[in-house]
Amino acid sequence: MNLAIDLRMATGNGENSYAANSRLQVWISPLYEKAILETRPVLQKAIEEVYASLIISPGSKMVVSDLGCSSGPNTLRVVSEVMGAIRAYCREQEAEDEEQRRLSVEVQFFLNDLPGNDFNLVFRSLDCYLEKHLGVEEEEETSPCYVAGLPGSYYRRLFPCRSVNLFHSSFSLMWRSKVCT
């Protein structure tokens, strides 16, 4: 069996889609919320450390990859968590150049899943999600944010060496059987 081809979700957002029918998504949602709350301090600290190391170099880019993103209700949650942590970090800074610091680092997200994932559904919902959850319409400016899909199995190398600042995975690393180098 070829896992990258044979093990995939039903695409779309229709009556038979994964996004609409996954009992695991619905069942995990409360667990996911609990996991987010319990791991948020660790995630926030990691985000702050990476961001702080990057703001000293103007024009820097923070690259975040969400492994096993799927195409359900929780797909863009990591984007929201990372951008929220960056906004909170910037508010805590008391430097006079806070606005420049906040805008000095661009954030690039790679949403990874198997090639059968419905990335079209993810990207159709992206603009609405960003406005609703990231306050894009608010007057408070935030770091520029870019989102790209990266189909492929994380059983093989997905990125060049040292090209990602932060990897995130929720409920997908249980599928790992070995560490790839």
From TrEMBL:
Pfam family, one: Methyltransf_7
Domain of life: Eukaryota
Gene Ontology biological-process annotations: methylation
Keyword Transport found: no
Molecular function (Gene Ontology), one example: metal ion binding
Keyword entries, A-Z: Magnesium, Metal-binding
InterPro entries: MeTrfase_7 (IPR005299), MeTrfase_capping (IPR042086), SAM-dependent_MTases_sf (IPR029063)
Coiled coil feature spans: none
Protein name as catalogued: Jasmonate O-methyltransferase
